[in-house]
Amino acid sequence: MTRACIISSLFLLSIFTQAQDVHYSQFNKTKALLNPSLIAYQNDDYEMQIQRRSQWASITTPFNTFSLSFNAKQVYKGLSMGATILNDLAGDSDFSTKGLSFSLANFFNTRNNTIFAGLQTAFYQRSINYDNLIFIENETFANTELVFFDFAMGISNYKKINQNSSLLLGFSSYHLNKPNQSLISSEKVFLNPKYVFHLAYYNRINSKIDVSPTLYISLQNTDNEIVFGGDLTYELNQEINLKSGVYSRINDAFLIALGIQKANLEIIASYDINTSTLVSASNFMGAFEFSIRYGWSILKEKKEIKQKVCPKYL
């Protein structure tokens, strides 16, 4: 195999690997990856979110994704702020994506709606390890990593329909600056913008049961991902809620989720049952994923207003 063939192969690999972003089945847990405006949409003043995904372990070296987020609501003049650390490792080449993103969001109240708007900037490092890759000829590659900046924005709208139901819908756009992704200095491969639309309808069936039908659509160049399904929450007692969810990712996987919520702590585990054309190799096995969220609020002391008593002169 000539050097030109190898370079061409790596170029095509670069095109393929940039075509689809890191994604979670529990797409609505890590807000920075769904819509940066949502960091202003939370019940608690502060929240920590951990999420981890392991995919294709039954077929090859697993694809592992991990993220850690911290969000703070209305910390300065109504502005909410968030930060997310991301670490993704894929395949035998140890194709790695490490990043740190910062989000800023605000909200505006109208007569019947609350509108959230957010901006995000991120710094990423991508790298590859050629040691475990086999070539016909010995080759030396100078570039094994690249660093790039990324920009995103999002908007969402929360509408309370009545005492028992509400609607949340949003739109976000990532990679607005189309950063270069190529590890080959002579080539330019740009990360295409990704557009995300999401919708969730919340409805209280009775005093014990809540349901939430959900739709998620992402479009990136010629690739698309459509997920629809819903969550069910059952109030076991005043302290514990049981959670479950069923989703379908079109032409790819069937997703099931189970979890528990106690006070401000929520733990959700999910599994992807593969239904794509890889099912003969995967034997229906897909990805395992879990998320842990903890939120808390700080009671703010009310300032005592001291009355100034003017002296009375006779």
Explain what this protein looks like in three dimensions.
- Strands 1-2-3-4-5-6-7-8-9-10-11-12-13-14 form a 14-stranded antiparallel beta barrel.
- The longest helix is centred in the N-terminal third of the chain and has 16 residues, at 3-18.
- It has helices spanning 3-18, 31-34, 279-282, and strands spanning 46-55, 63-76, 79-90, 95-109, 113-127, 145-162, 165-174, 194-204, 209-220, 223-235, 240-249, 253-262, 265-274, 285-296.
- The protein is globular.
- The model is unreliable at 1-19 (pLDDT under 50).
- The protein contains 3 helices and 14 strands.
- It starts with a helix and ends in an 18-residue tail after the last strand.
- It has 314 residues and is mainly beta.
The poorly predicted ranges are 1-19
Span of the ends, CA to CA:
107 Å
Shape: globular
How many E strands?
A: 14
Order of helices and strands: HHEEEEEEEEEEEEEHE
Total helix count? 3
Arithmetic mean pLDDT? 85
C-alpha Rg (nearest Å): 23 Å
Helical residues, percent:
under 10%
The portion of residues forming beta strands comes to over 45%
List the helices and strands and how they pair.
Blueprint: H1 3-18, H2 31-34, E1 46-55, E2 63-76, E3 79-90, E4 95-109, E5 113-127, E6 145-162, E7 165-174, E8 194-204, E9 209-220, E10 223-235, E11 240-249, E12 253-262, E13 265-274, H3 279-282, E14 285-296
Antiparallel strand pairs: 1-2, 1-14, 2-3, 3-4, 4-5, 5-6, 6-7, 7-8, 8-9, 9-10, 10-11, 11-12, 12-13, 13-14
